[in-house]
Structures are given as C-alpha cells and as structure tokens.
Amino acid sequence: MAKSKTKTKKKGHKMADIADRHVLYQKSVQGPDSDIPFFEHHYEEYTGKKLRNFREDFCGTAAMASYFVTHHRNNRALGVDLHGPTLEWGIKHNVSRLTPKQQERLTLVHGNVLDRHPWRAQMTVAMNFSYMVFKDRPTLLKYFKQARKSLQPGGLFMLDIWGGSECFVPQEEPRDVENSDDDGIGDFTFIWDQDVFDPATHFYTTRIHYTFQDGSEMRDAFIYDWRLWTMPEVMELLREAGFEDVHFLWEGTNKRTNEGTGTYHRAEVGEADTAWIAYIVGVNPRKR
Ligand SMILES: C[S@@+](CC[C@H](N)C(=O)[O-])C[C@H]1O[C@@H](n2cnc3c(N)ncnc32)[C@H](O)[C@@H]1O
C-alpha cells in the first residue's frame, strides 16, 4: 500500500521544523539538470567547442558544479562561496553523492568572488542574481574584472537578471512545488517575498518563505539584502570590465498562449513584460 507522504513526518513535528531549508531551496529555485545543458548549449553554439571547464561563482551548496562533473568524464568544475556552513552542507549532501573520480574533478573554494582564485574556466556563471549583493559600481566592476580574469581567452561569463514593472512592487508571490521524494515533506509552497524596495537606491530586501501541507510555515528561510541592478547598468559595467560582445538571451513567447516558452535566444531588444528573467553574457577577449 502506498504510504501517504504527509504521514511519514516524525510524530509531533511540524513539517516546517523537520524540513531542511537547503533541500527546499534546491527543489524550488535550482534545476542543474536543465541549467547545465542550457549553459553547455550556449557555450557550444557560441564557441563551437564542448564545455568541459566550468566555474560557478556564489555556488552555495554547489548543486550546479556537482552536477556538471557528472555530465562527462572530462568535465571539471570550480565552485566559490563565502559561506562555510552552506559549502559544508553541499559537501555532505551533494558532493558525497559523486563517485571518487567525479569528486576529484570538482574543487570548492571557501572564499570571496572578489578575490582571485587560480582557475581558467571556459565558462563562469553567477546565478540566482547573486551578484546583486554588490551594491555599488566600483565593487560590481571589481567583481566583473575578477570574473574576466578567471576565464580562458574567448571564455564566456553568464549572469541572470530579473526585471519588469512587478519587480518594483512589494508583494509575496507563492508558487507550488511538487515534491515526489519520500522525505516526509510532500508538496510545498515557495513564497518569493519582495519585502522592502527603495526606488532611490534600488536597494532591495527580498525573502524566501515556505509553507507546507500541514499548515506550518518556515518564514525567512533566506533573506537577501541586494541592489536591483538593471540590464543596461550590468551590460555597461561588463564592457567596462573588458568583456566584449556583451549580449543577452531573452525568453521566447508562445504566440497562442502569450506565455514564456522557457527557451532563451540571443536578442537585440527585450519586451516590456511585467516580470521577466534574462541572461546576460560577456566574452573574454582572445587578445588583450
Ligand atoms: C542567492 S545564493 C545563490 C546560490 C546558488 N548559486 C544559486 O544559483 O541558487 C547566494 C550565495 O552567494 C554567496 N555569497 C555572497 N557574497 C559572496 C561573495 N562576496 N563571494 C562568494 N560568495 C558570496 C552566499 O554565501 C550564498 O551562498
């Protein structure tokens, strides 16, 4: 007889008490199995080469870097993150699942992305808007310069960015997440909380909360103190940092439903949607 997932939770414990916030995060906002093929595809389309050497800045639990080394026996990855406990969680839960050979091809650095880490990546990514932690031009420029220096000549740097009129509106936006794992949690709801936005500085406090089928709630699982950078600002700073052919990938629109298709292509102009996510790419020049 199939067990009801909600009944597998420990007796007397609310789901919010037993759920692990990093597991919830990985299930609700990360998708290495779709992100890595997306990076590989864009890299190969742009350079004509296979992506074998990958760097994940702000890697957190290193979910993406860990997945990358499973994708091909010659794949190597570097992950950099400032927060020791998050990296340790990643080592315990993600890296430990890799084979010894895959582990050998993965390097995790407990450090600041503003510092130089010896690695020459074909592609470096900074996902889930992590670079928005840098709130002034000189610091973001310093990061972009450092990111360029960590790339091989001709290497690609990719960032994601979010915008649209809705991003300026303080609001809590729930999204249901299916969870088929037998972990006692069941399906849950991810809540993106655009808490405090200052239009004068674009400083933004955003939060992630989770709610569960038993009615319990994990408030402030993650809190981000960011500056909401705009696309022109980021693209200008990338050029200033020495990147060339700075371009962006915009999501296609299904003409019948007017919904996003989930596939991204290089575009020359964006669309004034109420909420969008795009990817910005800079290329490290071959000769300097
Ligand atoms: C929003 S999480 C992103 C996690 C993951 N990359 C993702 O795509 O979901 C931001 C991460 O950036 C890390 N971080 C913040 N400032 C950093 C810095 N200066 N250098 C390295 N990592 C930093 C935090 O420790 C945190 O793990």
Task: Provide a compact summary of the structure.
By secondary structure, the chain is of the alpha/beta class. The protein has helices at 15-18, 21-29, 32-47, 63-70, 84-93, 100-104, 137-149, 231-240, and strands at residues 53-57, 76-81, 106-110, 121-126, 151-163, 171-177, 188-198, 203-212, 217-227, 244-253, 260-267, 276-283.
The figure for the number of domains is: 2
| Spatial separation of the terminal alpha carbons | 66 Å
Class of the largest domain, according to the CATH hierarchy? Alpha Beta
β-strand percent reads: 25-35%
Q: Over all CA atoms, what is the radius of gyration?
A: 20 Å
Largest sheet: 8 strands, mixed
Structural class: alpha/beta
Bound molecules: S-adenosylmethionine
What is the residue-averaged pLDDT? 94
Helix residue percentage: 25-40%
Count of helix runs: 8
**Order of strands in the sheet with most strands:** 3-2-1-4-5-12-10-11
What would your notes on this structure say?
- The chain has 288 residues and is an alpha/beta fold.
- The protein folds into two domains: 5-18 and 165-227; 27-164 and 230-283, 3-Layer(aba) Sandwich (Rossmann fold).
- The chain has helices at 15-18, 21-29, 32-47, 63-70, 84-93, 100-104, 137-149, 231-240, and strands at residues 53-57, 76-81, 106-110, 121-126, 151-163, 171-177, 188-198, 203-212, 217-227, 244-253, 260-267, 276-283.
- The protein has an eight-stranded mixed β-sheet. A four-stranded antiparallel β-sheet has the order 6-7-8-9.
- Strand 7 (188-198) and strand 8 (203-212) form a beta hairpin.
- Helix 3 (32-47) packs across helix 4.
- The longest helix has 16 residues, at 32-47.
- The structure holds S-adenosylmethionine.
- Residues 29-30, 58-60, 80-83, 86, 112-114, 127-128, 130, 133 line the site of S-adenosylmethionine.
